[in-house]
User: Fold this.
Amino acid sequence: MEGIRLAKIPVANPAVLSRDGLDEGKVIVNCDTGAAIAVNRTGALIWALIDGRRNAEEIAEAVRRSFSNAPDTVKDDVAALLITLSEDGFIGYEVKSLANNYGE
Assistant:
């Protein structure tokens, strides 16, 4: 299937609730499992960007634009949080084709 590229789009679990926390952070609770995580301001922004439309690279770029002092590791940092959120059931992934199967 040459020419097909896939992008994983993070999607929030509908059973997850989030509330504002301290210092512009958030507390995120998975009501299915009872798992909870507290994230800082950057994590709160990443959570807000998980809207079912952006892939991890687009989320990282939005974070980079939002913080003038974003480190060079922003892509890795976003990926690490997405992995944690996925492992604990806070998010899942939708897979969308970026090219069709018919000769592109």
